[in-house]
Amino acid sequence: MAECLTHLESKILVGDSSIGLSIAIAIVFFWVSSLVLLLPLLLSETSLFWVFWAVMGRSFLHTGLFVIAHDAIHLSLIPQHRSVNDAIGRLAIWLYAFFPYEECRSKHWKHHRYPAQIGDPDFHNGTNNYPIFWYFKFMREYLPLRQLVVFLTNWGLIFGALNQIFAINLANFLLFWIVPLFLSSLQLFVFGTYLPHRGNRSSSTNVHHAQSSQYPVFWSFLTCYHFGYHWEHHEYPQTPWYRLPAIRYFHRNRAIS
């Protein structure tokens, strides 16, 4: 088993810089290109079916921006080049919602240090664990008043520029940029925070107080880039998101054997 673990660590645990960079470039490219294509779209001439799937696709790509930043925070995006890793993470989280990278990194490491307990910025307030209240507490951690002002100011300036220069209307701006951000925040909260950490801490069977989803790999990817494999992420925080299924497979086989 020691040999298997050593092999796993060398082949899986640490991210591959070329893979991480390729994924980051692909997500940013499709995020930008889809935005360029959809912002001037004539909604009156477009089927609601295609508008719906365009919004869903944009939401998934928006979550991808956060995932890039998340892996950068763990130095698993481009582990061999720290400065490039952090630069891409900083860009991704800025594109996501104008968040400051260093502040997000600090809060995320608190989540790993104090999972599902007081001190964890992603956790509920200790008493009210209803999803809606937990979600608003979750959002307040990342959008305090100062950051909310930055957020709204930037959105106003961007829309003003797009409207004046390219005649982009408000409906398109909201539908293909703001709504995907909101849906992405729900996706990250539900599959990356609420479902993994909603259990009773006193009855938790692991130090991370995290439980993983039982979704097959394909659905795990679609729901939230494998964030549902949450115990695996907490146990191996240096492992990039795309290798979490391999970690899960390894531990399942070890349990069976």
From TrEMBL:
Keywords: Membrane, Transmembrane, Transmembrane helix. One of its GO terms (biological process) is lipid metabolic process. It comes from the Bacteria. It holds the Pfam family FA_desaturase. The keyword Transmembrane applies. Residues 48-251 form the Fatty acid desaturase domain. The keyword Ribosomal protein does not apply. The chain crosses the membrane at residues 21-43, 49-69, 148-168, 174-195. Its cofactor is Fe(2+). InterPro entries: FA_desaturase_dom. Belongs to the fatty acid desaturase type 2 family. This is Beta-carotene ketolase.
